[in-house]
């Protein structure tokens, strides 16, 4: 059985500003999306990558990214949908019986490690569904729409969820099918599985595994990349 990575990178990147989607912006001279794809290209347990991008960018991405950077594990470039969930659903329509574990990872999280990929896939293989995250370190407040603190929330047991998230193929396909039938929109892939009554295994992630959504994130990403390069 093969392990498939689905990389949704279909966003417009409005919070980043400018006219270039955030996944295509350069980070140390290399597009953010290429940094992300390289992590899965290097991973020995990833057999295939399905890349989801805006429909109008598909030809250019195949030529300039997949072929241009030698990303041989990218076997399909798929048109994205209106929302991230739609994009992942489009990719799931092309999975095959040969795929045992399906992993989903944000295209703008370029600092995912090979070790983290291996751990989340192993957890999904054992438990059926797995996500990565980090425990909340700061004090958490519940705040009203008027900007007043309602209460301080007990942070014990609270985690900030990241990607990659990994699932047995039949489970994630069933979760997406049910979400479509119910017209349910979740904030991440594991939430679609959770609402089916299936337990998702949480494993420790990495504070460097940030999602680049703002100019400040891109600046921080450059610092993380320089630190990685010096190690």
Number of domains as seen in the coordinates: 1
Largest sheet: 7 strands, mixed
Strand element count:
11
The CATH level-2 architecture is identified as Alpha-Beta Complex
Strand content: 25-35%
Given helix and strand content, the structural type is alpha/beta
Percent of residues in helices comes to 25-40%
Mean pLDDT: 93
Query: Radius of gyration, rounded?
Result: 18 Å
Q: The CATH topology is what?
A: Spore Coat Polysaccharide Biosynthesis Protein SpsA, Chain A
- Form type: globular
State the end-to-end CA separation. Answer: 35 Å
- The ordered string of helix (H) and strand (E) elements is EEEHEHEHEHEEEEHHEH
- The CATH class label is Alpha Beta
CATH superfamily: Spore Coat Polysaccharide Biosynthesis Protein SpsA, Chain A
Low-confidence stretches: 13-17
> How many helices in DSSP terms?
7
Q: What spatial order of strands do you see in the largest sheet?
A: 5-4-1-6-10-7-11
Task: Explain what you see.
It is a single chain. The chain is 35% helix and 26% strand. With 231 residues, the protein is of the alpha/beta class. The chain has one domain: Alpha-Beta Complex (Spore Coat Polysaccharide Biosynthesis Protein SpsA, Chain A), CATH 3.90.550. The chain is globular.
Set out the fold topology.
Layout: E1 2-8, E2 26-27, E3 30-31, H1 32-42, E4 48-53, H2 58-67, E5 74-79, H3 84-92, E6 99-104, H4 114-127, E7 129-135, E8 140-143, E9 149-153, E10 159-168, H5 169-182, H6 189-194, E11 201-204, H7 215-230
Parallel strand pairs: 1-4, 1-6, 4-5, 7-11
Antiparallel strand pairs: 2-3, 6-10, 7-10, 8-9
